Amino acid sequence: xxxxxxxxxxxxxxxxxxxxxxxxxxxxxxxxxxxxxxxxxxxxxxxxxxxxxxxxxxxxxxxxxxxxxxxxxxxxxxxxxxxxxxxxxxxxxxxxxxxxxxxxxxxxxxxxxxxxxxxxxxxxxxxxxxxxxxxxxxxxxxxxxxxxxxxxxxxxxxxxxxxxxxxxxxxxxxxxxxxxxxxxxxxxxxxxxxxxxxxxxxxxxxxxxxxxxxxxxxxxxxxxxxxxxxxxxxxxxxxxxxxxxxxxxxxxxxxxxxxxxxxxxxxxxxxxxxxxxxxxxxxxxxxxxxxxxxxxxxxxxxxxxxxxxxxxxxxxxxxxxxxxxxxxxxxxxxxxxxxxxxxxxxxxxxxxxxxxxxxxxxxxxxxxxxxxxxxxxxxxxxxxxxxxxxxxxxxxxxxxxxxxxxxxxxxxxxxxxxxxxxxxxxx
Length: 427
Ligand code: GKR
Ligand code: MG
Fold this sequence. Notes:
Layout: E1 12-23, E2 28-29, E3 32-33, E4 37-47, E5 52-58, H1 61-74, H2 82-93, H3 110-133, H4 137-140, E6 148-150, E7 153-156, H5 176-190, E8 194-198, H6 204-217, E9 222-226, H7 233-242, E10 249-251, H8 257-266, E11 271-273, H9 280-289, E12 294-297, H10 299-302, H11 305-317, E13 321-324, H12 331-342, E14 370-371, E15 374-376, H13 389-402, H14 409-416
Parallel strand pairs: 7-8, 8-9, 9-10, 10-11, 11-12, 12-13
Antiparallel strand pairs: 1-4, 2-3, 4-5, 6-15, 14-15
Magnesium ion binds next to loops.
């Protein structure tokens, strides 16, 4: 009998995994365009003490099936026993490596599949632990070292609206001037002090021109460019040299650790990644080769909040920078990312978020507000966000009605432009 099986345990009595869909604009990237709806899963964990916890994860069909399999295996577990939670997740998924890779987040190993599933339950367990103790999740991670967490404006080349629909509020952005306008709108509404441009969409010289236009328009704002491996080594080096002194970091210019290392040897800015270092097994070879200088952590696939703290210690030891990656997400994830980042001293870069691109959510509005580009760490117990049950039901209905069960930017693009090919690298 383990210690956690003894006295006073708060046990998991039920787990509900609900797929949801929310409207998403036609954002372009290196492999296509965002579908009209982004899909996510909302995880509700109920306990013997009547306290419930929330988690959020990907909504792709294979991942949903794995979450449900793991959910069944976690019933009866003490909510403080997250080590055992990971062991049960691993046992439940043994041999069930998933083929779905949500967004541009690199290749998935069996360990990665386990960590992707575990992460959502770990966050819900931390939410419950915090509620039981009357402390915010940040306190469970050692306490906040910053009271608010800065995020970056995530700019995208985009169409005006999905075909057949009215233009969305940001409108079309297919050149430098339109991206500067997009940045103005986002910065004036949210106050961001850093900008990330999703590249890999237009020819590299047009993306260089866009970054230069952003630099001119916003001289004091940190700039990043992420073409999601759309460039060869030679193109990456050319772009890196053109943008010397302009970029805070260049993210995933080219595929693979060796090619990234060659680029890193030939450009002056740091290289960042959420594609070639996506699990603990990638870290040692990346350090040995000198492939990257900044890792974009993401608790959704690095295995939850405590695992990202583990990664932060590695980054600290090997003098690597730490930033945070996002995919289209809802408020439960934003709360989790904020608590985590508040408690990681060396997470000094403004975090990515797709937040400004959505107009609906599953949480009760209120605790997560951007002021000067940052979110104050919620002080209420747990994650500090509350589920809006009507909104959850509505977004679930939307999931059922929209018919999207996998994220596929390429297939959606090909349904509109049959000749489109997602070639990486393309230039
Ligand atoms: O939302 O299109 C997108 C992004 O390209 C996303 O899928 C990536 O995973 O944001 C991500 C990134 O930094 O590569
Ligand atoms: Mg990236």
